[in-house]
# Entry
Amino acid sequence: HDTTLDPEYYYARGANRFHPENAFNPEQVRRVLTESEHVIYLEDELYELDLHGRVIRVWGSPYQPEFCDWAFNLKPGDATLAKAQEIPSDVDVLVTHGPPHGHGDQTSSRETRVGCPDLMAEIQTRIQPAVHVFGHIHSGYGVTTDGRTSFVNASTCTNAYQPINQPIVFDLGLGEDGEVMPPVFTRFEPVQYDSM
# Structure
């Protein structure tokens, strides 16, 4: 979880919760990423990946509807809708911290879906990316599709916070017209684990 990258959250609660003895400076932590030549940090930003004159457009956002006491939480409703509407329509790969409603968002009890309905509505009606990659809900690890978008819950940890989920690897190709083709999953091995 990106607690040190959200200064408002970190100063209010995160430092005491996660680093009570030795708090970090969120601005310095953020600079490690934003000033790196080897990292592309996206916080409600677009990155265009140039592939020999053709472009794959990637949008990244760390926000999600309130779920427990984590950084980058937004109140469901106006705030989540406004955040979802910031995403450009011509994004090929969408990367968010939290899932949309209905894909990779079931809690460990499997009775509750906690994904963002506003994000899902924008994905299905306007954005329609080839791939949406997210995490946050560890029990939702895996890949689903609605026939247009592949939804990848790439949580590395299990519900018990064990980092044993295998990477999910896919390739994206470009058609002759520059259109991003559906992903081809080259490595996805679901891990069976206890939800407790």
Observations:
- Residues 190-196 have pLDDT under 50 and may be disordered.
- The first strand starts at residue 45 and ends at 51.
- Residues 7 and 180 are 36 Å apart (CA to CA).
